[in-house]
User: What shape does this take?
Amino acid sequence: MQEAVVHPGYEPGGGHDLALLRLGAAAAGIAPLPLREGDPPAPGSPGELVGFGRAGGETEDWGMKRTGRVALAACDGVPDEGNLCWRFTAPLPAPGEAANACDRDAGGALIVAGSVGPRLAGILSGGLGTDCLPPDEGWASDVTAARDWIVATALDDPLAPAACGDLRSAGALQRAFSITSAGRTVTVAEEADAIDHHYAVVSVDGQEVYRYAMLQHAGATPIYGLWNWAGRWVLEVNGALVVEGELYNAKAGYREIFNFRMLDGKPFFLFLKEGLVGVYYDGQTWPGLFESVVHGACCEAGIANPGNAAALTWFYAQQQGWWHYVELGLFERQSP
Assistant: This one.
């Protein structure tokens, strides 16, 4: 980091709890979210908190990335202008369905769904309670209210499409991919219609050839990647594998396919069949190896699992009720 620029209107608890950090080098593997536009979200609108703070109460478990949903509400503890607020009240639903921010979450994100994908609505700022337990009210600084300052200070348009270097975006936040397959330029991008239906749209040499209806989401896109497999384009989206417009799940009898990749130039993926997770590599299958492999969910366990390195895939899996760390890859046989 080269410089930190604090918003000139910053007052503790009064809004504009914002700062821009000027990096010494471009970040790779993390695609920034565009800012929310328009009027503030109406009370009751859904949002998602993302931060690295503690869980609340007497815990000191900060440092792990967590996400959770909130319903935005009118502010009581701080002015409505420049802030976006939510209530945290008992009884609580399932974990992640009603969340709150806590110590060291400040600087994290409040994300809302836009018409063409997730948008950054606010930067987590504070709350009324000291233990972060219900009943409580939390708030984030509204980035839309500070957009003019952000643009003038950054000398860039934060609503413009953002790249993330040469790496695949962390947590599948990337919403567009492009490859070359059999001499063709193949792209996939996320689109949304007027009633917020989301689609993964595949084009070949600029012409749309396939459209997949995705589940509505706020946060990471369900588009996980686009690859070339022996001259055929391959799309992984929402637990489905599409090969040249054909749903491979239906062809192979798999309920779900995830973590597709080319390993040593050959296709590798995990699949769910009859309630168990198996492995596919280069035409060979090993079904029913694991009871569960967490993936595609919120928080660290779902975003970072499975993980991939150059010659292997690693993940945590459940087998006979126990969780195991697993590495699958290409290893040299040791000499006797």
